[in-house]
C-alpha cells in the first residue's frame, strides 16, 4: 500500500468523496477500495484506511456501549472496539461465526474493527464514477455513506468512516 492518499480535514479519504472534481461523473483519479458483504449488500472502504483483516474470534463485551459496539478485541496488546455493521445500519445483530471477519480500519487515529460477513475483492475505479447517495430520509444508513459506485457485479456503497462512529463512542469504547 502506498502512502500517497492523505486524509482530508474532515477525516474522509479524498478518494471516497463525491466531490472529486466538484461534480460526480467527471474524471477524477483512481482509488482502490476493499469490498465486503453484509448479507446481500456490498460495501467498501478506502484501502488506505485498512490496517488488517482477521477472522472472527469473538470479543470481550463492555458495559454501557451503544448496541452496535460488540466489545473489544485484543490486537497484539491494543484494545480495538468492534462495530457490528449490520447493527449499525439498522439490520439487526450479526450472529457472528468463525466464517465472519473483522476489518481493522483506522478512524481519526484510532483502530476500529468492522464486523462483516465476508471480504469480496479489491476494486479500483475513477472517483468520477462515484454517485451521490439519494437522501430519502435523514438518520438512516445513508448518512454514513459517502457515495455509490457501480461495478460489473453490482453496486457498492462507500462507507464514510468519519461518520460511522461518533467520536464520543470511539473514546468511550477505547
Describe the protein's architecture and organization.
The chain is mainly beta and 174 residues long. It has a single domain, classed as OB fold (Dihydrolipoamide Acetyltransferase, E2P), CATH 2.40.50.180. 9% of the residues lie in helices and 41% in strands. It has three helices and ten strands; from the N terminus they run βββββαβββββαα. The protein has helices spanning 85-88, 161-164, 167-173, and strands spanning 30-38, 41-46, 50-55, 69-75, 78-84, 101-107, 110-116, 118-126, 145-151, 154-159. It has a five-stranded mixed beta sheet with strand order 8-1-2-10-9. Strands 3-6-7-5-4 form a five-stranded mixed beta sheet. β6 (101-107) and β7 (110-116) form a beta hairpin. It is globular and about 45 Å long. The two termini are 27 Å apart. Residues 1-15 and 17-25 have low confidence and may be disordered.
Topology of helices and strands:
Blueprint: E1 30-38, E2 41-46, E3 50-55, E4 69-75, E5 78-84, H1 85-88, E6 101-107, E7 110-116, E8 118-126, E9 145-151, E10 154-159, H2 161-164, H3 167-173
Parallel strand pairs: 2-10, 5-7
Antiparallel strand pairs: 1-2, 1-8, 3-6, 4-5, 6-7, 9-10
Amino acid at each position: 500500500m502506498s502512502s500517497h492518499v492523505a486524509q482530508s480535514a474532515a477525516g474522509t479519504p479524498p478518494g471516497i468523496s463525491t466531490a472529486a472534481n466538484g461534480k460526480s461523473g467527471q474524471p477524477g483519479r483512481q482509488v482502490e477500495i476493499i469490498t465486503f458483504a453484509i448479507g446481500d449488500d456490498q460495501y467498501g472502504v478506502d484501502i488506505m484506511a485498512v490496517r488488517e483483516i482477521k477472522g472472527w474470534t469473538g470479543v470481550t463485551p463492555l458495559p454501557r456501549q451503544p448496541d452496535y459496539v460488540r466489545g473489544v478485541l485484543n490486537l497484539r496488546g491494543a484494545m480495538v472496539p468492534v462495530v457490528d455493521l449490520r447493527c449499525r445500519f439498522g439490520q439487526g445483530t450479526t450472529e457472528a461465526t468463525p466464517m465472519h471477519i473483522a476489518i481493522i480500519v483506522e478512524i481519526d487515529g484510532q483502530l476500529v474493527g468492522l464486523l462483516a460477513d465476508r471480504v469480496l475483492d479489491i476494486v479500483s475505479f475513477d472517483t468520477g464514477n462515484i454517485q451521490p447517495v439519494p437522501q430519502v430520509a435523514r438518520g438512516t444508513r445513508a448518512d454514513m455513506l459517502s457515495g455509490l459506485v457501480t461495478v460489473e457485479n453490482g453496486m457498492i456503497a462507500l462507507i464514510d468512516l468519519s461518520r460511522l462512529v461518533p467520536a464520543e463512542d470511539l473514546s468511550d469504547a477505547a
